[in-house]
Amino acid sequence: MTLITRRSILIAGTATAGAVLAPVPSATAAPATARGTRITVAAGETYELSATTRVARLSIAEGGTIVAPDGHSVTLTVDGVETGQRLTATGGTRTLIQAGTYRGDVVLTVAEANPVTYETLTFPFRQALYVDADGVERAKSVLTSVIGGRLTDTVAKDVSITSTGECFDGVYVKDADYTLERPVISLTGNGRCDFAGYGAAVVGAGAATTLVVDGARITTKGVVRTGVIADAGANVVVKNSRIHTRNGVLPADYQATVETPYMQSVPWMLGLDGNVRATNLIGAGSRATYLDSTVFSETWGALSVEGGQGLKLTVVNSRVGNTGSYGYGTYAIGDATVRVLGSRFDVGSYATIIAGPAANVHYGDSTREAVAALNAELELGLSKAELQAVPARNTVVNSGHFGYMFFGAGTLTLDGGTVVNSEKATFLNKGQRTTITVDGSRGARLNPRNGIVLQMMELDDPGPVRVDGRMMNVGVYTEPTGDPAKDTAFDVTAVHTTDGAATFTSIALKGDFYNGMRKGKNMVLTFDDSSVRGVISASSTRHHVSTIDASNFYELGEVTNTTRAAVNNGVIVALGAGSTWTVTGTSHLTKLTLAADAAVEAPSGKKLTMTVDGTVTPVVAGQTYAGAIALTVG
After folding, report:
1. What's the rounded Cα separation, in Å, for the pair 28 and 56?
2. Contact 272, 329 (CB under 8 A)
3. In principle, which of 343, 364, 367, 378 could form an S-S bond with 416, CB 3.0–4.6 Å?
4. What band does 37 get if pLDDT is binned at 50, 70 and 90?
């Protein structure tokens, strides 16, 4: 049986109290099946609302359904809080109001549909506030969930949005200039897709969008219930704000996948767990900038970049990190540009995961000149007074595991006064082409607690497995056995464009460098005006366990090194002017070049011996050596 109300009823009240956008006077629906100000939906009954309706009580029996006309959605708010909505199926897109009794200021808002397509799926967005080029689009908004403050076509000030249902967005801005000042947005309950923003607190979408979020307090708890998303060329600027997301509970029948329309948890093959990111930057040409803000996820990631082209993520004078044991600060994929200036990162696993193939990442100081240049490039809209008030700071990274992981090819630059403190290796390169540059001339420092500056190793990602036509995260990594076969076509003494390269300038380094690759890839190290104290060597690596799957994901990247002569893993070292290497243990190289004033030495009281292809050879400044080079300390 289908019951249909015929009256068009628009709601006023606390939702827009004091707002410039004054709502139409309210009325109360009294459909034929409702008694007074109540609606009752029986088991098996479908109740269709043709217009927004306010009642004092709503009762839905198990199997009862409330729907809106085609091209519309229906949203339930009780006392100004969106509630009651749940996804109808795991992996689905549709939500329904759940069975139960709802009392208070009960409003059922019928709004025009906002379908958002991502790859193979179309998500039926519902949002408290929808803004387009003409301003607030009331027909697509659920204004009964926008409480207090002041709301106009260009700015929302001091509004509050609360949701306890699933897949409800706070603010959706499409191809518009809009400002959110001091919003308080609290979302509890699962989202569905953070590649589209289905269930996010704030979404800016479209190349014509400039969305400024100033002084926001955004908290979410739920699966992929993201805080802020910039998509499809939008320019999103977040200032003076706090964003904190916490994991939710995955559906009992959810199966982990890398298929992004269905992905609701981090692929464990990254050495991570969790099911919500604080932010995401997606699409083509999108920009997201975080100024003087705090952004934390529980696990997974704080500031993510996913797919797309020409994406720019910028962090200035902000605090970023994870409250749990695992997680990253930023993620860089494709040709993304990621810049972190004057910020503090307190992360569980990595400051940045570089997933390539052409990502460019920079950590440095927030000098006034650097911020002014970003203001112009990114169209941040900072006034002269705001620019002058920006304090110059260095960047500090504190990581519970590694500093940076290369999961794909990319470029990483550390300069200024950047300090990287990590429990494990500063740089973890899983078989990728890298260009790492560290300039210590202004105080940059690397402090790996386990004593490894750079670890190269084979990629230990087992990859997804196709199961019933779907790419599922059920792979198992198995440690290879035996020695690698020599690739006679690969030159371990030559520099290749595919090698893992790192350059260190004007810095004092203490720690080891290992190339544990089995396949052809050299570690190419250049030191200029620098000192390094440690082992630099080819090695064989071994994980702590022989197999790794989702149950022990944390073992990924955790290896021990045994120094040995290179097979397909050359180590090429160039000591430039003013550089010294103090060798603290047996090191196997394939090429060593010394500038006229460079030196290789043993620690005080020790003796250094070098052999080249088995022949004892003195180390002489200004010379180049190639072959099977072994340096020992006795």
Report:
1. 10
2. no
3. 364
4. confident
What is the Cα–Cα distance from 282 to 394, expressed in whole angstroms?
28
Q: Are 210 and 245 in contact (CB under 8 A)?
A: no
DSSP line for 159-189: -EEEE-SSS-EEEEEESSEEEEES-EEEEES
Q: Which of 401, 429, 602 is nearest to 524 (CA)?
A: 429
The predicted structure's pLDDT at residue 382: 95
pLDDT at 22 over 90: no
Largest CA distance in the chain: 100
Burial 339-366 (b: 16+ CB within 10 A, else e): bbbbbbbbbbbbbbbbbbebbbbbbbbb
Q: Are 23 and 11 in contact (CB under 8 A)?
A: yes
CA dihedral (420, 421, 425, 428) in degrees, to 10, reads -40
Token couple for 335:
């040709």
0.85 cut: is pTM over it?
yes
- List 504's β-bridge partners, or say none: 438, 527
Residues recorded for the chain: 634
C-alpha to C-alpha distances, 309 to 93, 174, 207, 232, nearest whole angstrom? 26, 19, 13, 10
Query: What values do phi and psi take at 384, rounded to 5?
Result: -60, -40
Radius of gyration for the alpha carbons in the chain, expressed in angstroms and rounded = 28
pLDDT digits (tens, 9 = 90+) for 604-613: 999 999 999 9
User: How many Cα neighbours within 13 Å face the side chain of 192?
Assistant: 27
